[in-house]
């Protein structure tokens, strides 16, 4: 009976979400505020990388501009959270930031649906450069200094419920980490169901052979625009969480480097894999800190140790591409599948 229920994708994904939520509670309650801040960083990078892996791995569109959609979500959040008593609750702010990014995704995705390969990469690259720079020309967006984000306290009933469950008082950093991880879990459940649905199969068909997909009656443009819009919405939500976690939104936070790091996280974890996107985001967050600590312990100065981390990250990326071309999760799945087939053959 239990196996029959778990065969239903929605039920299986909801059960995994509950297990993941329990693990998040345990980890956040047992770690320091510094680790809570790092885990919030993992959460918003994971949301953006999850959307990007759906676009690139499942639909075959290469985007180098997802940092721009994160900027749109972050600036929307910053504008809505300029007052200590905002007009919208935090859930409403997250929803509005996501919807604004979705609309911008439609505006960009419709013309981008006509492009392929390096052309769409070039178009989104221009977007990643242009959008953050636009903020410099509008005083309402704070110019180069950016906008401060005033995150209001959570409602009392939520704080009371959290204390009842965990037995600990919830500080501001931990509450932002919870917001980020709840958003990530909800996003991943929706994306996982989308992958297993007719829409996901349509995206894979377009990725594998667009001519055959069109002959089969699939509207290529509609499928590509929908994938782009979903991915942009994820990036907007990630930008909103990032604005709350960092508490400032400025153009320097959304450089081309951010878009490239998101893409590298997707490649490291494995294209099309949500678990891979999360693992890649965790590497982006924790690997520089680990390398810096090792460098300082080895006798380097703080500056030298900090400069060492991009080199190590690049070497790790090259090693993964050479030794595990399908990414960490993709290669692990392939290995397990080969072992299963070998044991079945024996």
UniProtKB/TrEMBL annotation:
Domain of life of the source: Bacteria
A single GO molecular function term of this UniProt record: branched-chain amino acid transmembrane transporter activity
Write out the annotated subcellular location: Cell membrane
> Transmembrane segments in this chain: where?
12-28, 40-58, 64-81, 88-113, 119-138, 176-194, 225-246, 258-291, 311-332
Write out the entry's keywords from A to Z: Cell membrane, Membrane, Transmembrane, Transmembrane helix
Q: How does it sit in the membrane?
A: Multi-pass membrane protein
Subcellular location, principal: membrane
Cellular component, GO annotation: plasma membrane
Q: What is this protein called?
A: Branched-chain amino acid ABC transporter permease
Per the UniProt record, the source organism is: Solicola gregarius
Upper lineage: Bacteria, Bacillati, Actinomycetota, Actinomycetes, Propionibacteriales
């Amino acid at each position: 009976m239990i196996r029959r229920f778990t065969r239903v994708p929605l039920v299986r994904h909801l059960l995994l979400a509950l297990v993941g939520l329990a693990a998040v509670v345990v980890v956040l309650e047992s770690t320091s505020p510094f680790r809570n801040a790092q885990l919030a960083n993992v959460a918003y990078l994971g949301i953006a990388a999850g959307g990007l892996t759906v676009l690139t791995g499942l639909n075959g569109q290469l985007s180098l501009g997802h940092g721009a959609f994160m900027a749109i979500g972050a600036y929307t959040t910053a504008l809505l959270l300029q007052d200590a008593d905002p007009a919208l609750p935090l859930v409403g702010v997250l929803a509005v930031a996501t919807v604004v990014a979705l609309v911008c995704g439609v505006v960009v995705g419709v013309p981008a649906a006509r492009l392929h390969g390096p052309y769409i990469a070039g178009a989104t690259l221009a977007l990643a450069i242009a959008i953050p720079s636009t903020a410099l020309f509008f005083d309402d967006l704070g110019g180069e200094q950016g906008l401060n984000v005033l995150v209001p306290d959570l409602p009392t009933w939520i704080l009371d419920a959290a204390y009842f469950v965990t037995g600990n008082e919830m500080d501001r950093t931990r509450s932002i980490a919870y917001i980020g991880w709840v958003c990530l879990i909800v996003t991943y459940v929706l994306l996982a169901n989308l992958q297993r649905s007719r829409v996901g199969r349509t995206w894979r068909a377009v990725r594998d052979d667009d001519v055959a997909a069109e002959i089969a009656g699939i509207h290529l443009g509609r499928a590509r625009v929908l994938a782009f819009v979903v991915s942009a919405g994820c990036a907007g939500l990630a930008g909103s969480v990032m604005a709350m976690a960092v508490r400032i939104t400025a153009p320097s936070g959304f450089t081309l480097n951010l878009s490239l790091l998101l893409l590298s996280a997707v490649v490291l974890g494995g294209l099309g894999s949500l678990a891979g996107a999360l693992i890649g985001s965790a590497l982006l967050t924790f690997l520089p800190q680990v390398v810096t600590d090792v460098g300082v312990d080895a006798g380097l100065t703080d500056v030298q140790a900090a400069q060492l981390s991009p080199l190590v990250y690049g070497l790790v990326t090259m090693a993964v591409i050479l030794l595990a071309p399908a990414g960490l999760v993709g290669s692990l799945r392939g290995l397990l599948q080969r072992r299963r087939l070998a044991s079945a053959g024996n």
